[in-house]
Give the backbone structure.
Amino acid sequence: MKTILVPTDFSEAAVNATEYAINLASEIDARVLLLYVYNIPLMPYTDVPVVYPMPQELHQDAERLLKKQVEDFNKKKSGVEIDFKAVLGLPVSEIEEEAKDAEFIVMGMRGAGRLSELLIGSVTTAVIKTVSTPVFVIPEHVAYKRPLKIVLATDYSLKTDSETFDPLKRVIKLFNSKVFIVNIRTEREALIESVVAEDRVESTFADVDHLYYFPENEDLVEGINKFIDNKQADLLAIIPHSYNWIEGLFHRRSSKKIAFHTNVPLLALPDKR
């Protein structure tokens, strides 16, 4: 049986992501594995005697919280098998290890949807950049919705192996989705380049319902947001490792906030090159 891995910290965002994962699991006949990675807290030096938590106590507390959460989800009678696991270690390393046998990872998005706040320096960013498993990032207040309209944001400056798109194509075929392949242009480019760009991916998406768009906008994120709104999309798919302008967003250190769309989940596809 397929597995959807859900790293959790028991926050509202993580709970919402778990609910999304359970709904997705029911559609693709998968089980959900809740993963909580804990570590031993560093204690400051003090002359006052302090009782430090033992690893066994931390593990028992973690399993108790996970068991309670699974019981709460099981009350909703989704019919989906939900397992849990608590491990001591570093979050990204443990998630990467558990994700080796997972179909998807589903993680929650906190806050007001600022990309710089969400991804820069976060576990989510590190997971997306490290693991070879597709990652769904779910906004905190967005409920599950079948992804019938999918926007694939691309930068045709780099070639990507067609295998990279396999997880996305499985989703498209399962839900009979329409995919909008969009390249936001920051300046006017020759029409012939658009034709060449289409040829690069046409063979990959030839067997699914797809359309190409090349809108112009000096602000890339604003351009994506407008396109998502215009098409009333249900999911945004990206390949962070492959596309220069998206990679720039993931590494941006500016204090300027980047307004990012908060109403659709993000699917980050690992580059298989």
Summary: The chain has two domains: 1-144, 145-261. The mean pLDDT is 79. The two ends are 27 Å apart (CA to CA). The CA atoms of residues 242 and 271 lie 6 Å apart.
